[in-house]
Prior knowledge:
The chain is α/β, with parallel strands linked by helices. The chain contains 19 helices and 30 strands. The chain binds 5'-O-[(S)-ethoxy(hydroxy)phosphoryl]adenosine. Residues 261, 306-308, 382-386, 408-413, 433, 494-496, 508, 511, 517, 522 line the site of 5'-O-[(S)-ethoxy(hydroxy)phosphoryl]adenosine (WTA).
Amino acid sequence: MKKLSGDVYYPSEDILNNAIVKDWNEMDKFASENLEGFWAKEAEELEWFEKWDKVLDDTKKPFYKWFTGAKTNIAYNCLDVHLKTYRKNKVALIWEGEKGESRIFSYFALHREVSRFANVLKSLGVQKGDRVTLYMGRIPELAMGMLACARIGAVHSVVYGGFSVESLHERLEDSHSKVLIVCDGAYQRGKIIPLKAIADEALQRAASVESVLVVKRTGEPVNMEFGRDIWYHELVNLPIINSKNDIEKVDAEDPLFMLYTSGTTGKPKAILHTHGGYMVGTYSTFKYVFDINDEDRYWCAADPGWVTGHSYIVYGPLLNGATSMMYEGAPNYPFPNRWWQIIEKYGITILYTAPTAIRGLMRFGEAWPNRHDLSSLRILGSVGEPINPEAWRWYHRVIGKNNCPIMDTWWQTETGSFMITPMPCMPLKPGSGTKPFPGLKMDILDEAGNPVKDNEEGFLVIKTPWPAMMRTIYKDPDKYIEKYWSKYDGMYLTGDSAKRDEDGYYWIIGRTDDVLKVSGYRLGTAEIESALVSHPAVAEAAAIGLPHELKGNAIHTFVILKSGFEKSEKLREDLIYHVGHEVGPIAKPESVEFVDVLPKTRSGKIMRRVLKARALGEDPGNISTLEE
Ligand code: WTA
């Protein structure tokens, strides 16, 4: 193996001998020389009701299409196909509740549940192409609801359970959802988040929703509106609901789901993914990167409400017939050993989580993990933000016992599947996601579009299409082109800045736009600002992200008050509460500073860059456009 520069962790003999992919270079060479052939070969491992005419159709780029003419269904490939094999009785989903209770579903059982769920949706009039919003805690019914939508060709839109009234309202309205699936409440650190009550408030302003399906989790009393709200358990247990459910044979390019995500400006946009390409992309990236085999018990600790949960709790693992674990609660509740206890209890072999969680758990010291038998682990993963080398080494040494390679996967809601990622057979460098997935061409460019030199920072772009790529922004194809395809001709702009070292390894630095990654969660400065200005006391507001030891970034805000309002500690607290109420607790600002003016360009745009430089005590750079 070639000697690489810097701090390098080479794969063990054991991994090299047993991994699915033993020679990454060979695989990359094959995929690069024959991109369509590579993906066709992957696609052939899945089931199609009708085969494709073309693997890749780029006639209308950047509106790429994959597997055109084919008919399939991702839910069929996640469940039904496994019933024809020995996997019928294999565990598909392990769920552990915050209180320690567990529910375990075989592929057979999950298939039955999803089929019944699909019939429940049909009984509410949901048809192919209809949008269904899910706003729930981390419970099995969330995954079942997603799969049930997919099964009947409906389009799911999952709204993270940590979002609040306005975020939910916006998403219900924009998607024009016919049905909302919600829980009565969700457990979080022993407390109950009243999801149904939040939904009731959001629903006052969302006209399209005809029915609200309520899944009982906490048993706390909730308001049930006659004619609109119905308990899931009551409906699913009616004698008319059986598990006979014909799968909808959808086009490969039919929409599977939309997922709202924060962009550069304005309201969150719905990223649209389809059945065929997304299925192939999540299937093979999951297989190769986590080197999955039948003995594995895989745990992705993300929330299904974000893309990581979609692709790598639900779809990727089930397509592979793997055993996927879902845990309801927080990593350190009731004690900081909760995760380690779960790994020991279930014999988890692969753990996939975010740097912020690792840093948080690291803070409690090694004694907590050391109390548990973590020897079942063989591969670790990281996602959501750059992992600092210190956290990487701790994860590797204390959790992985120097035995588990760390798959630092870089990707986005838009990309659907892993883009820059190691595989277990590759040498690793702490803090680098190594190289683009086989066949994928990426680059780092300067403002003018020239590739930067090794170890210089620039804009990260993707130069080849890939199957799980987003197809468009829902209802806004122009924005899709403008945001992602217009800075450099024919290239997808990621919005991240990065460097590439002399070994061709990529190092992600962070966002170059107004997107913030706070504890791995993606938020836009615009969402926080519009929540602030919706408060009666606020005239103008600006939000920026500043480095934070645990969260990666923390939100800092600057507020100009309307005349007649006095700054006070009470008002500051009110504003923080207000953002939490409107957007969600994850968006609560770390600080609110009352100011008299905000730096703006002559055309009136807030210069967040100047605010950030000032807060960091740095030089704000070119301020020639700054208004006097
Ligand atoms: C960041 C999450 C560094 C990046 C899957 C990207 C990362 C944004 C990594 C997308 C990683 C994600 N290393 N940065 N391994 N993974 N990011 O849409 O800034 O919630 O653009 O998707 O997260 O966030 P999103």
